[in-house]
Amino acid sequence: MKRLLSIELQKIWLNKASRVLTLTYFILLSFIALIASIKFDLGIFKFHLAEMGIFNFPFIWHFNTFIAAILKLFLAIVIVSMMANEYSYGTLKQNLIDGMSKKEFILSKFLTVVAFAFLSTVFIFILSLILGYGFSSYTEIGIVFSNLEYLLAFFVKLVGFFSFCLFLGILVKRSAFALGFLFVWNIIEGIIKGILTFKIFPESKIASQITQFFPLESMSNLIVEPFTRLSIVKTIGNQIGVENSKDYGVPFSGLLIVLFWTFIFIYLSHRLLKNRDL
Description:
By secondary structure, the chain is an all-alpha fold. 71% of the residues lie in helices and 3% in strands.
């Protein structure tokens, strides 16, 4: 497994575009720290994000994983391009000629997916600790290391999303078309969700119970938006009479659904490659 992962990482690092995108992704993740410097001072109105508590433990785990997940598209491009290059440069056929089985080939890609997700999670963990200890009002160990389930959700979400991208890269063979398919699929899920929510089941939770099983929706549900958890937002909501009953926790069922989709995408990737004439 170490050999397979090493081969894939060398391919990515030797490709200039993939190398730039990967470095850009981690650089942008570090830019989360710049949020702390955002200040507005307009007379009596003063706005400082860091002072709003976004970097307080344990809220920071929720906030940082949500923001970092938005940037996952950069690595998605790397994953899709990784497969497209295999076909374009003929390295897939050469690897098979050199003795690598199709199962090992898919395993090497999946290990790369897991490695990217793991490195991203570790990066966010370290960054959150630094920002938290720098700005949080609560630094007791019990508080600092509570709500770490958001890191697990972040990891599972990335593995599932990258596995989907890997499947699309094998299915379509061209990175631009694969990313286009991903975009179209996201729109399709959104349209179906809208129809179920506002037309078919407008007065019940049946729509959300159905759409939670959609691949992209299930990944999105792992980490819901954190902004309405902020005290200032709650205060404004109470003043205008808006009741917030949202569940901000990481659903165990959601983790299982995304892991199921991850298995499906990797299985279909292997079946597709196995049955395809290269």
